[in-house]
Amino acid sequence: MSICVDVHLLSAKHASVEVEAEASVESLKRRAQTALAVRGRGRLLNSSGEVLDGAQTVTEAKLRSGDVLTLHVNQVQLKAANGLGFSAFEQLRDVQQVQASERAFAAILGDGSVVTWGIANYGGDSITVQEQLRDVQQVQASERAFAAILGDGSVVTWGDANFGGYSSAVQHQLKNVQQIQASRRAFAAILRDGSVVTWAAGCGGDSSAVRDQLRDVQEIQASHHAFAAIRTDGSVVTWGHADYGGDSSAVQDQLRDVQQIQASSHAFAAILRDGSVVTWGPADFGGDSSAVQDQLRDVQQVQASESAFAAILGDGSVVTWGIAHYGGDSGTVQDQLRDVQQIQASGGAFAAILINGSVITWGDANCGGDCSAVQVICVYPRQVRRFISEVKYPSPDGFLKTTLETVNGRWGDTKLEDVLDPNRSRKPEDKDKRRFLYVVAIEMHERGLLDSAASVQS
């Protein structure tokens, strides 16, 4: 049996890829790279932003027909900032993954070594463990510390001890580690046998109260100060600060056949096998979804800001709840949220990618909830790419002709066709908008951010 998935690049170029269910994820990635005409090392991410294990089969990775994946090809460019010395900058070559604490970064290089920079007591200085950082497979970060999984399944930590940077008390248990998750101040590691090891003071670092329940664990999610683990039987175990979702007793009998969990800063939302959703934690942070519970059917994906959740339904519509200002109320854009393929969140806002490649945002404007300054590019990315592909360097006539043929919409209070056509509008503000479009189109083209229309599916 085969499945068909959509694989997207960050440029919005995408392709449909068919693969056998028993084929490896690595094989799927290679097919996607061929279809998208890209080279280099890359990683496939699922709709939740998680990196897929290339060694797993498509079935083991729980991929289904219609899933939307993202292909990250490593063409990394970094600029020096305060705290990144020239010696560290020179080492940043062949970067495979970058992880961030509150004020520091850790980069895994192609040879499995790690380069760190930033504030030392936030994990920016790894000199005390540098010799141990070999064959690193994955790095996770708390607010002020890092934890690295090595190829042999052991773990190396550094940074502030109170935030998980010191793991000596449990080091003898950290064997055959498969996955690490982090709250603000603690870490939780899943071992090959499905057991869990936690460390650090508070915020879920002490799991002794539920140790006997932490068996056959498949996945862990974290709020700021608590953890939630999904077991193979679909049940859920929680621990940590009760006010951050660490106590799920009020909904424990509903947590059956759980497929996925997402967390805001203080609350959790679980998708069940039947497509319904169970939430817990403080209501102000999305822990109470009762106001929209009847709408939460056939849920495919959930994303979270700091204080709200957004769920994509099977028909491509979206349901939101939580603090309105931080994305819990999508009423102003609800009629536009159709055929949604993927949602991403900042601390206080959401951005939804539609099937036609356009983007809809809502939530706190200061957190990215208002993209009106670039709305024409967000809403009409394919039209701009088509124009670029047909005219190597933008000219007013070519731009207007191509765009007017393919666009039907508005920019602010003005019809977009009036904005684009100088014969229809001579308003100074519309001239400024036209000038803006030309500059953006040229800039995007020269930076290689737009792909040819021949490679882009409409």
Automatic annotation (TrEMBL):
Residues 3-75 form the Ubiquitin-like domain. The keyword Repeat applies. It comes from the Eukaryota. Keywords: Repeat. This is Ubiquitin-like domain-containing protein. It comes from Symbiodinium microadriaticum (Dinoflagellate).
